[in-house]
Structure formats: C-alpha cells, structure tokens
Amino acid sequence: MLRIMIAVDGSEPSLDAVRHGVKLVRQGLHASLVLAHVQQEATFFELATQDPDLIARASVAAGRHLMESAVALVEAAGVSYETEVGLGEPAPTLVDMAERNGCDMIIIGALGQGGVRRTLIGSVSREIARLSNVPVTIVKHPDPADVADAQDVVDED
C-alpha cells in the first residue's frame, strides 16, 4: 500500500490537496495518508524567556488545531490516515517527515501565484519539489479572478 504525505496548514489550498488525496484513494488507489504540518521553531528570545518544553507543546497543539479541518475531511471519506506535526523550516522539515514516514509521494496545495510576487515571496511547494526524492503533486488553488472569468463565460452561453 502506498503512503502519501499531504502538507496541511489549515489554508484552503492545503484542503484542496487533502481533497485531491482523498479523491485518489476513493478512485481506487491503495494508499494511506499522512497529514503533516510544520510549525516554525521558537526564536532564541522565546527559548531564553520561556520554558522550551512548554513552547514545544504549544506549537504541537497549535499544529494539531490547524489540521482539524483536514482530519475531518479524511475521516468523513473513511480513508486511513495518520497525523504528524513537526518543528522547523516548512519545506525541508516536510521532506524529512515524508522520508521518515516512508511516504511514496507528497501532495501540497499552492496558491498558484505567478510572476514577480512568486519570486519575491518564495514558494514552499516549489522548494519541496526541489528537495524531495519522491514525486510531488502540487494542487493549484483556483485564483478567484479565474473562477469569475470562467463563470462569465458560462453565463454568456
């Protein structure tokens, strides 16, 4: 059975990735899902002024909270899954988590921004695709302007 890691951050694009993974399984792909989330590590100041164990527990709890919608989608579909929350930089940590969990592929959602904005902001999905040794599927979240344009075309017919 394949293991598919899906990066989840609570955003609509990440839920698109979960829906895509669920769809693959419902269409007959024999796979289990690993829903994965990465929290940024605490800053040096936070570690120096707070209990590091408390900060780590709070980060994991926050990550689990952000995964609740994804978990609900997978449970409603009756698909086998596990969850994992990591701490660190998102792209390399997610790739490490996929390797550690023996995943055969990674699915990640993306806003699908283009041009200068993508270059300035960077892209976790592009970095995962660059770093990963397993196939990466990037599920593009529809741009509201594209959806409106498509609806205009339908309305004209």
- The helix/strand order is EHEHHHEHEHHEH
CATH architecture: 3-Layer(aba) Sandwich
The number of helices is 8
List low-confidence stretches. 116-122
According to CATH, what is the topology? Answer: Rossmann fold
Quickly give the structural class: alpha/beta
What CATH first level would be assigned? Alpha Beta
* Strand order within the widest beta sheet: 3-2-1-4-5
- Given the C-alpha coordinates, what overall shape results? globular
Main sheet specs: 5 strands, parallel
Q: How many domains comprise the coordinates?
A: 1
- Through-space gap between termini: 45 Å
Return Rg in Å: 17 Å
Q: CATH-wise, what's the superfamily?
A: HUPs
Briefly summarize what is shown.
The protein is of the alpha/beta class. The chain contains eight helices and five strands.
Fold and architecture overview:
- The chain has a single domain, classed as 3-Layer(aba) Sandwich (Rossmann fold), CATH 3.40.50.620.
- It is 54% helix and 21% strand.
- It has eight helices and five strands.
- The chain has a five-stranded parallel β-sheet, with helices on both faces.
- Helix 1 (12-26) links the parallel strand 1 (2-7) and strand 2 (31-39).
- The radius of gyration is 17 Å and the shape is globular.
